[in-house]
Predict the structure of 2-aminoethylphosphonate--pyruvate transaminase.
Amino acid sequence: MYKLLTPGPLTTTESVKQAMMIDHCTWDDDYKSITRTIRKKLLELAHVDEQEYTSVLMQGSGTFGIESVLTSTVGTKEKLLIAANGAYGLRMADIAGHAGLHWELYLEENDRIPNAGKVVQILQQNPDITHVAMVHGETTSGILNDARAVGQAVKDNGRTFILDAMSTFGGIDIPMSDWGIDFLVSSANKCIQGVPGFSFILARKDSLQAAKGKARSLSLDLYAQWEAMEKDGKWRFTSPTHTVLAFAEALNELEREGGIPARNKRYRDSNRLLISKMKEMGMRPYIEEAHQGPIITAFYYPENREFSFQEMYTYIKKRGYAIYPGKVTEADTFRIGNIGEIYREDMIKLCEIIKDFLEESKHA
């Protein structure tokens, strides 16, 4: 067995795993009550009122949730601006292309955040743009984009703002209304620390109602999914029942930990400790401190020495942890996440393992 130092799926608690040992019928009133409770708690985490906002659960991974929002809200006479600085922003562009949306790309380098002023400039030059989408925590590099500034810029210019908060919601406080977010997308297996199986969308009700009839997909029709859940609490098509039960327990555990502020502190403390100890071994983070997020960190390969990531990965995995290879294309990097059931002692132990690897490989 080993722990996952990844941006999700991640290491979960025993109680979250145990929650999946119960079988549920999707038509059962108790199960529908669990779905309703989850939807209500998600809105509370986003600091929004049920009168103005709603939540929708959607089968599939986070990408399914993103595709659902993009293909359900951008109509045939509307246009999407995607502000991207990594693989997951570019994945939105891929979705838009496949779906035949009208779209435009504002692309920044992997180590630079999209600039709110630039977004405003693009919107003013392109009055046909109706929607803007951006990733909050871009796990390609670990960078944390300024969703608040971009959201305010989009709101001030009267457009709809879609935020991919896949790897941040539940681990970073996101006051949805204050940030001007119309649609927020995240996933069960990220900072709330559930398991894979569904994504969830938080939405302004008026923005969601405006999406009626726009969907390009049957199963990913966001408005139709919401309409069904509002009617009697049931998902339109077969739901991932065991994942839902695990998520309900994960939400309870988030509350017991002290909510998002406490979880954010644990993540940030672990992240800072990791970066400090890695620097001592000559491994620099790819992202500058000002924009480094607390979820996952990309590190450059060590300088002035022979280095094999695969050898280090295998060495670390045999000793209890799994890390990630790099995803940026212009630099040799690897990534280490610190979300999930991961604590300070895990960061200390991991860095000791890496130090041992570097010493042994030096003398090999």
